[in-house]
Amino acid sequence: MNFNATAKEFASSHNFGIVDSTMTAIAERLSVKSPRPRRTIGFITASCIVIANIIGTGIFTSLGFQVAEIQSGFALLMLWVVGGLAAVCGALCYGELSAALPRSGGEYQFLSQIYHPAFGFMAGFVSATVGFAAPIALAAMAFGKYFTGVFGTGSPLVLSFVVVWVVAAFHLGNLQVGSAFQNISTLVKLLLIGALIAAGFCIQSKQPISFLPAAGDTISIFNGSFAIALVYVMYSYSGWNAAAYITGEIKRPERNVPRALLVGTGVVIVVYVLLNAVFLVTTPAQELRGQLEVGLIAGKHIFGSTGGRIAGAVICLGLISSISSMTWIGPRVTMSMGEDHWLLRLLGRKNRHGIPRNAIILQLLIVNLLLFTRSFEDVVRYTQFSLLLCSLLAVLGVITLRFTRPKMTRPYRVWLYPLPPVLFSLITVWMMFYLLCWHTAESLAGLGTALVGLLLYFCAGKRMHSSA
Q1: Is 118 helix (H, G, I), strand (E, B) or coil?
Q2: Exposed (0-12), middle (13-18) or buried (19+): which is 346, by Cβ within 10 Å?
Q3: In sequence order, which residues have a C-beta less than 8 Å from that of residue 160 and are 6 or more positions away?
Q4: What single string gives the DSSP state of each residue in 201-244?
Q5: Contacts of 455 (CB under 8 A, 6+ apart)
Q6: What spatial distance separates the first Cα and last Cα of the chain, rounded to whole Å?
Q7: Per-residue pLDDT tens for 145-159?
Q8: Beta-carbon count within 10 A of 290 CB
Q9: Where are the domains of the chain?
């Protein structure tokens, strides 16, 4: 169904301060009238979509920040296992929510329906601002580092600005990067990962590191350093929540959705664990420590100087692909909110080619501000806190709906309920607690971004009420 049209119809005939029960009833009535999507995706295709959604460039950038605080090989690999476990638990919960509340919008839709429209607006605001701008900035920072490492010239900061401006110019000029580029770059990235894993285990010179548990590893896994390092891992697993949004198009969703999420995420966990193991056994930890371009550094140890640069160039290609896709998608989310809410109406406007130029420019400005921080770590901590908050509220919504609306139609239910939502919530709260304690400024900035969304909602609500 057309979510924007539905939202407009709702906004024009009701005050924003309306009680939850009325909005829920309207949403249910509208969803009943909507034609159901055709279910054409099978289990194998769904699993591949999950894998493609999750595997990004975070795997080539995060290890350097983890080895700075954690030296145990076992604990470093357990980071990726725990992160993958959290990802699959979250994805299963989103799968139930997507099936029970079959309208587009993600957390914007979920939190509006489960709690109150104000929380939905808050989540939409976070997603429409830093939710896409931050990954673009992070990918641009990595691009600058990798480009400089591959070609030995240029300023990483200048290159970061250049790549986001050039990509934005393409999208502003009604020139869209084709889906073929996205698909090819993803395929090449997967082939590169496979080559790194295979070649890494074949080289003779290995680093003196053990991946077996040793004395003191239990303490390492349950301390604050592990929780903070897990934030970077969750950035690498980002995409798990998007994977569950295809529920309405999957055949036999009650069976295939959880299977696809489990198998797809399981494959990614194995890939991530093996690739990080290769990085650690082929490259001295002191060379990786604090570095962003870990794929390039490890690639030189595996393939030699020339081969490593080729691997770095491929990663640069993948980074441009990621920047382009998020530059295209992010402003469309902002545009939808601008069409729904008068306070953001300037962002909902499109030019004669249908391009949301104002939304693209706003996102570009936010990206530029984040790039000026020149700190990959600070941007990850700032954005992840607000994004973790929104996903936590959504996952807890599974439990809330089980109590408040037990008779709601659910094409499938979370396997092993309530273990997945409880486990995801515990891991998320654990990360947020240490983020708030150890990196208070970045965490409060992320929380402040979410609160700005709430403030904007109530400002819009008062305006709508006074003009009614």
Answers
A1: helix
A2: exposed
A3: 137, 140, 141, 143, 144, 371
A4: TT-S---S---S--TTHHHHHTSHHHHHHHHHHHHHTTTHHHHG
A5: none
A6: 28
A7: 899 988 888 889 899
A8: 11
A9: 16-30+41-461
Tokens of 142: 């990595």
**Cα distance between residue 134 and residue 231, in whole Å:** 14
Structure-block tokens of residue 64: 């350097």
The string of DSSP letters for 257-275 reads: HHHHHHHHHHHHHHHHHHH
Assess contact for 416 and 258: CB atoms under 8 A: no
Rounded to whole angstroms, how far apart are CA atoms 116 and 398? 15
Q: Which residue has the tokens 């080559």?
A: 195
Whole-number pLDDT of residue 86:
94
Q: How far apart are the C-alpha atoms of 468 and 461, rounded to whole Å? A: 11
Q: Where are the beta strands (DSSP E) in 97-187?
A: none
Rounded CA gap, 131 and 342, in Å?
A: 21
Residue 151's CB is within 10 A of a number of other CB atoms, namely: 13
Whole-angstrom Cα distance, residue 66 to residue 58?
Answer: 12
DSSP-based three-state secondary structure for 342: helix
pLDDT < 50 stretches in the chain: 1-35, 177, 464-468
Query: Which residues, in sequence order, are CB contacts of 319 under 8 Å at separation 6+?
Result: 57, 139, 140, 142, 143, 146, 163
Cβ atoms of 307 and 335 closer than 8 Å: no
Query: Which CATH superfamily is 16-30+41-461 part of?
Result: Amino acid/polyamine transporter I (1.20.1740.10)
**Residue 17: predicted pLDDT:** 38
In one-letter notation, the amino acid at residue 296 is L
Plot region of 56 (φ>0 → left; ψ -120 to 50 → alpha; else → beta): beta
What's residue 468's pLDDT? Answer: 45
CA distances from 110 to 65, 104, 122, 257, 452 (A): 33, 9, 12, 18, 19
**Residue 358: CA count within 13 A, CB half-sphere:** 15
Tell me the three state secondary structure of residue 250. Answer: strand
| Radius of gyration over every alpha carbon of the chain, rounded to an integer in angstroms | 22
Cα(366)–Cα(401) distance, integer angstroms: 35
- DSSP assignment letter at 247: G
